[in-house]
Amino acid sequence: MKSPRTHFRKVESINGYLFALPYIFGFLALTAYPVLYSFYLSFTNYSVLKSPQWVGIENYRELFTDDVFHTAIKNTFIYMLTAVPLGTVMAILLALLLNTKVRGMAFYRTLFFIPSLVPLIATAMLWMWVFNGEYGLLNDGLRRIGVTAPNWMGDPAWAKWTLVIMAVWGTGNAMVIYLAGLQDIPQNLYEAADLDGASPWKKTKAVTLPMLSPVIMFNGIMGMIGGLQQFALPYVMFPGGAPARSTLFVSMYLFDNAFNNQRMGFASAIGWVMFIITLILTLTALKVSDKFVVYDRS
Questions:
Q1: 2: pLDDT confidence band, cut at 50, 70 and 90?
Q2: In 3-state terms, what secondary structure has residue 278?
Q3: What are the tens digits of pLDDT across the range 179-205?
Q4: Per-residue CA distances from 292 to 14, 60, 210, 287 (Å)
Q5: Both ends of the chain: CA-CA distance in Å?
Q6: Domain boundaries, the chain
Q7: Span 60-289: which CATH code?
């Protein structure tokens, strides 16, 4: 005969699985199955309107010889390698400023966080007005002080920089995480540094940045993944990757092939190549982080 405690644990386990069942079903049906099916589709010629036809590695072979894909992946990496470091530096500097004890600090924190709450399409429309080469707010201000204003959105040399500037402008989410990390640093470390006569810069270098390194690693990896997946802003602001495909990113090329060209199999191959690249970069970052990330806060 089973004891009451055993029966209670069995009922508790059943109830736990029942509560988790909606998530399990959603994960299997809406995440796991589409991911696995896309892997199968990457080896097929699939136009959505017809049944998939097996073509083996033909999609991958075409992908690695596709000049447009090479341009897209080059643009994506240039954007990621500029926007992520600049955004990281800006977010840390803002967090350091907002971590000081100044009157009205809650207002300033809210002010710097608000840009990250603006919907992406609204953000795109706003910056299209700011960067407009003829009547844009930025160029109008530059002309008034005698500076020759570039054609931000029409010049291939400047187009990607508009997206980088927008990325730096919207660092509110990362800033809040850095601010939380700063407030979690033990104050006794700063007190010990003061006793040693450390300057503000030395305290930042020897205490703040090492103690903040886990947060920097997290935000860096998330920023890298977000940079590789950049889509909405360039797709709205630069249709087709204009000008001269200088703003064509991999996610835009994937979307165009999947839904405009009806090449779902080829688009799936693009997605899996980017997944492998993202996975390799993430694992590399985690491996390298062992050398500089400090987890001991004692």
A1: low
A2: helix
A3: 999 999 998 999 899 898 889 899 999
A4: 44, 37, 8, 10
A5: 51
A6: 4-33, 60-289
A7: 1.10.3720.10
